[in-house]
Amino acid sequence: MEKRLVLAVVLMIATVFIVNILFPPPPPPQAPAVTDTTALTPAATTDTAEPAPTQVRERPPPQEPAAPTGTDLPGVVQPDEPIDEDTVWVEGPLYRIGFARRGGRVVSARMLEFESLAPATKGEPVEMVPAGAETFLTHRWLVGGDTLDFSQQPFEISPADGLTLSEGGGPGSLTLSYQPEGVPFRFEVRYTFRPDDYVIDLEGRIDGVRAAGWWAVGLGPGLKSNAWDPEEDYESNLAFSGRGPEGVKTQKVGDVEAGQRVMLDGPFDWAAVRTKYFVTALVQTPEAEERSRFGGLAITGLPDPYRASAFASFSVPRDGRFTYTLYMGPADYGRLSEVGYHLEDVTPFGYKWLQPVLRPLAGAITALLVWMHGVIGLSYGWILIVFGIGIRVVLFPLYQKSMRSQMATMRVQPLMKEIQEKHKNDPQKLQQEMMKLYREHGVNPLGGCLPMLLPFPILIALFFVFRDTIEFRGVPFLWLPDLSRADPYYIIPVLMGLSIFLLQWISARSMPQSNPQMKIMMWVMPIMLTVLFLNFASGLNLYYATMNLASLPQQLYLAKERRAAAAQPLPAKTAKAKT
């Protein structure tokens, strides 16, 4: 039974960490080649306008438009010289966001509650927008083969001196408008900010022409990493994604080569760009019609490493008005869930086939740890120690029942061997006699395994909690610089391995019979798990080591009980059966 238990544990761990390596998700299909488009004129807009489709599915998403050269509208030419940025700032308790007059794009988004961990900017507020980003929340209008690109046009921004949001105050709006001189056309986009939320309302309108075609909003060249190791963050986590009826589709930026074009086909309820801990997402509003879904994400690789330009497209309504929700902030599970449309799925929490179980379990564990941190007032390191002890206390009755079930099985092993030898050529009779033996002595052959496996779903969920949850980002404890990163001195994983060895050593000493295989596993399993956990989050190791150490008193008690039970004579029924 002990050997089967150890084998079950090893297979569980191996399955979780190896299946996704052996069966990685297929890469998304590449978009067909995109041809350059000509500039859009008001006449073309009016004459070639077509009725807007009733559903996004009825019309394929557009390819990424090429930026037009020359004239955008009659009488309006591209500026000969770069337009002064004239950055206008929106400042509040949570963030500081800068909008440039040229293109109306976002040039800076600083998260004031979070410090950068990157070596070059350590201690500064997190900056989400990469330096030199030209397409972060810029706009393009596509009708047929024509494109009107607003990314280089001068916008009027009102109020011109920006916004200041006060804690506990009401929302504020910033309006960006573009109206070429002498042309009956106007585009306006308004952002409404709340001082206590990362959710921003986005409202756009087109006046002076008949609305049709597709609108494309830029998600920039990706996000700027503020992690300890930015390159690792870019390689593993920087990605564009969208969620629709078929689930989440994701394209890692590191897998897109310069000049390569990839299309994530919609329809999508939201389109986003993320790093490990921060997200920018466009989400359709709850009252939106079916056709307001995003048609797709067009992604083009850029020459700079880990950079790709992406545009999310949607069909333009007949009245030229569109409304979306913009989320720009931390990948906080609770905040993302409140936005709706399962925006929390933007973070690939665990392996896809395990997500239905892991997400609710991890969400509950995270909520419990955050609640304990707020109520008890201790640091997260001590909270994990309390949590590990608490889990062991809660599981104490089940663990004790498991050990006693194993002891009962061990006591009848001599009779089990006799029955197996007697009926080795009659499997049916063997099974009947074995079940009769179990009933006579109250033995449950599975009672010793299940309770011992209960902590492992929690352990697996905590693996992803510490890997992906922002609450533990950059949280120090004693000598550990960050509970979400590995122990730099490997003290905790070694302590965890020693605790596993000690538990097995105590258990082996109380066994009535020596088992060579168990002796081998007593050495191999702690070493194997220590090596496996060396580079895992130190918070995970801290929890596991604490839970093991909290098991020592119970293990000593059960070992004493096991030795006492082994010294007792066999039950009367067993003794009679043997004679």
TrEMBL record:
<dbReference type="InterPro" id="IPR028053">
    <property type="entry name" value="Membr_insert_YidC_N"/>
</dbReference>
<feature type="transmembrane region" description="Helical">
    <location>
        <begin position="443"/>
        <end position="466"/>
    </location>
</feature>
<dbReference type="InterPro" id="IPR028055">
    <property type="entry name" value="YidC/Oxa/ALB_C"/>
</dbReference>
<feature type="region of interest" description="Disordered">
    <location>
        <begin position="45"/>
        <end position="82"/>
    </location>
</feature>
<feature type="transmembrane region" description="Helical">
    <location>
        <begin position="380"/>
        <end position="399"/>
    </location>
</feature>
<feature type="domain" description="Membrane insertase YidC/Oxa/ALB C-terminal">
    <location>
        <begin position="380"/>
        <end position="559"/>
    </location>
</feature>
<feature type="transmembrane region" description="Helical">
    <location>
        <begin position="489"/>
        <end position="508"/>
    </location>
</feature>
<feature type="compositionally biased region" description="Low complexity">
    <location>
        <begin position="45"/>
        <end position="55"/>
    </location>
</feature>
<feature type="transmembrane region" description="Helical">
    <location>
        <begin position="6"/>
        <end position="23"/>
    </location>
</feature>
<feature type="transmembrane region" description="Helical">
    <location>
        <begin position="520"/>
        <end position="544"/>
    </location>
</feature>
<dbReference type="InterPro" id="IPR038221">
    <property type="entry name" value="YidC_periplasmic_sf"/>
</dbReference>
<comment type="similarity">
    <text>Belongs to the OXA1/ALB3/YidC family. Type 1 subfamily.</text>
</comment>
<feature type="domain" description="Membrane insertase YidC N-terminal">
    <location>
        <begin position="89"/>
        <end position="361"/>
    </location>
</feature>
<dbReference type="Pfam" id="PF14849">
    <property type="entry name" value="YidC_periplas"/>
</dbReference>
<comment type="function">
    <text>Required for the insertion and/or proper folding and/or complex formation of integral membrane proteins into the membrane. Involved in integration of membrane proteins that insert both dependently and independently of the Sec translocase complex, as well as at least some lipoproteins. Aids folding of multispanning membrane proteins.</text>
</comment>
<dbReference type="InterPro" id="IPR019998">
    <property type="entry name" value="Membr_insert_YidC"/>
</dbReference>
<dbReference type="GO" id="GO:0051205">
    <property type="term" value="P:protein insertion into membrane"/>
</dbReference>
<dbReference type="GO" id="GO:0032977">
    <property type="term" value="F:membrane insertase activity"/>
</dbReference>
<keyword id="KW-1133">Transmembrane helix</keyword>
<keyword id="KW-0143">Chaperone</keyword>
<dbReference type="InterPro" id="IPR001708">
    <property type="entry name" value="YidC/ALB3/OXA1/COX18"/>
</dbReference>
<protein>
    <recommendedName>
        <fullName>Membrane protein insertase YidC</fullName>
    </recommendedName>
</protein>
<keyword id="KW-0813">Transport</keyword>
<dbReference type="GO" id="GO:0015031">
    <property type="term" value="P:protein transport"/>
</dbReference>
<comment type="subunit">
    <text>Interacts with the Sec translocase complex via SecD. Specifically interacts with transmembrane segments of nascent integral membrane proteins during membrane integration.</text>
</comment>
<dbReference type="InterPro" id="IPR047196">
    <property type="entry name" value="YidC_ALB_C"/>
</dbReference>
<dbReference type="GO" id="GO:0005886">
    <property type="term" value="C:plasma membrane"/>
</dbReference>
<keyword id="KW-0472">Membrane</keyword>
<keyword id="KW-0812">Transmembrane</keyword>
<keyword id="KW-1003">Cell membrane</keyword>
<dbReference type="Pfam" id="PF02096">
    <property type="entry name" value="60KD_IMP"/>
</dbReference>
<keyword id="KW-0653">Protein transport</keyword>
